[in-house]
Amino acid sequence: MKKVLVDAHTHTVASGHAYSSLQEMAKAAADKGLQVLGITEHGPSVPGTCPTLYFKNMFVVPRQLYGVRLLMGCEINILDTQGTLDLTDEQIGWLDLAIAGVHAAWYQAGTKEENTEGMIRVIKNPRIHIISHPGDGSCQLDFEPLVLAAKESHTLLEVNNHSLAPQRHKTVARDNNLELLRLCKKHGVPTILGSDAHVSFQIANYERLYPLLAQTDFPDELVMNYWPDRFFDYLGLPHDVCLT
Predict the structure, then answer these.
(1) Whose CB has fewer CB within 10 Å in the chain, the N or C terminal residue?
(2) Residue 23 in this model has a pLDDT that exceeds 80
(3) What is the pLDDT of residues 104-113, one digit of tens each?
């Protein structure tokens, strides 16, 4: 198993239901030997999360803390089968890293085909870098078209550790994520493991995902958490650190 150097999907107290500060998260990432940490607060549809002003003001945050490259971003909500997002194009432009995902409480679901078509629209949106937890069962999806669209668009489909926590009661998440991994392997599509950390102790914790990687004999070369340079190149992100 390669060493994890990237955790792109985490939340701080600013998200309203997480428990560590930005500095605590960055320090924990440094202590674990990470090179890249994404701070991706929930989009404004989630009650108690930060206002849009938070995202506009992120330029004040140094992009290197404790030796860790910091990517300030958002986990944007996909709201419906049209691929509507809860940040505007201008607001997404404020972000270093744009993750988009379905959270069932704030999603107007359709049929499996409609949900899939809407997510493909988001995957093809050039502003979106990662799709969060598509396999958690928040809506029914056809995964092979998603994988093929992600390959074409250089968008990463996340396999999410937090979704597999027993307390989440995501009963289909394990099988869905296995299917995603098998399809990504079949088509040679990179993926990213998501800790979805809501407290500093969860950073780079993928303990529930490693058995799935082993079961599918998933190639290390396709796991972007191990390869920071490939992660930046694949998503078209700048390598240079922007300091305030």
Answers:
(1) C
(2) yes
(3) 999 999 999 9
- The residues, ordered by sequence, that sit 6+ positions from 57 with a Cβ below 8 Å of its Cβ are none
Residue 242 has pLDDT above 70, yes or no: no
The pTM (predicted TM-score) of the whole model is: 0.97
Let me know: does 106 contact 85? Beta carbons within 8 Å. Answer: no
Burial class (CB in 10 A: 0-12, 13-18, 19+), 167: exposed
Query: Residue 241: what pLDDT?
Result: 57
87-123 as b/e: b if 16+ CB within 10 A:
beeebbebbbbbbbbbbeebbeebeeeebbbbbbbbb
